[in-house]
Structures are given as C-alpha cells and as structure tokens.
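F.,

This is the one I mentioned.
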C-alpha cells in the first residue's frame, strides 16, 4: 500500500495494481492479513485524529481572530461616528461665524472697512518693527 499526504493533513491510502493471481496471495501467513489491516487501520485513525486536532486548532484560531476583527471594526465605527458628530458641530459653528461676517461686511461701507483694515495692517507693521 502506498500513502499520499494531502496539504490539509489527511492521508490517502491506495494500492498499486498487481499482476497475476500469485501476487494476490503474497504475504499471507497465519493472521498476517488481519494484523496488517488492523495495524494500518490504527495508523490511519491516529493520523486522522492528528489532522482533526490540527483543524480544530485552526478553527479556534480563526474564531478568535474573527472576534478580534469584529471588536476592532466596532471600535472604529464608534470613533468614526464621534468624528462625524464633531465635524457636524464644527460646521454649524463655522457657518454661524460666516453669517456674522457677512452681516458685518454688508452693513459697513466699503470705505470704512478699508480704513479699518489699513489701520490693523499699520499697527501690525509698527509692532513688528519695534520688536525686531
């Protein structure tokens, strides 16, 4: 009998074709066939049990990993929700400020506004040259 191992850990058993009737009776001794078949059955069972244990370990690992991924996704979703809420509140504050600027610029004359801006620039330049 020949064996072939699969990547997943299972072992396939197969017989090579034999030619002639005399090869059918090769190796027959008292209890020889039963002992060989029982022994190979025990080997196969042992190998299958090892493969099954390996698969169980992999399943447990994958289950743990998928649970960790789920927790990470939930954490990121909560963080993104908070960021979205913060952005909405910031957008509200900025839009209110822009509305106030618009009302200030619309009610003031452009000459008066130009004088105010020029005064601020002048004061800034004076302070800059004094501290230099």
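My design for it:
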């Amino acid at each position: 009998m020949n064996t072939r191992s699969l990547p997943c850990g299972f072992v396939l058993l197969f017989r090579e074709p034999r030619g002639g009737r005399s090869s059918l009776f090769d190796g027959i001794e008292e209890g020889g066939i039963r002992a060989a078949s029982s022994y190979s059955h025990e080997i196969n069972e042992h190998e299958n049990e090892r493969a099954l244990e390996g698969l169980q370990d992999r399943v447990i690992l994958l289950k743990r990993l998928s649970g960790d991924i789920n927790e990470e996704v939930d954490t990121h979703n909560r963080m993104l929700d908070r960021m979205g809420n913060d952005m909405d509140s910031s957008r509200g504050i900025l839009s209110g400020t822009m509305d106030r600027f618009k009302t200030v610029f619309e009610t003031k004359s452009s000459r008066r506004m130009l004088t105010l801006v020029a005064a601020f620039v002048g004061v800034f330049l004076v302070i800059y040259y004094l501290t230099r």
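Residues 32-107 form the longest helix (76 residues).

Talk soon.
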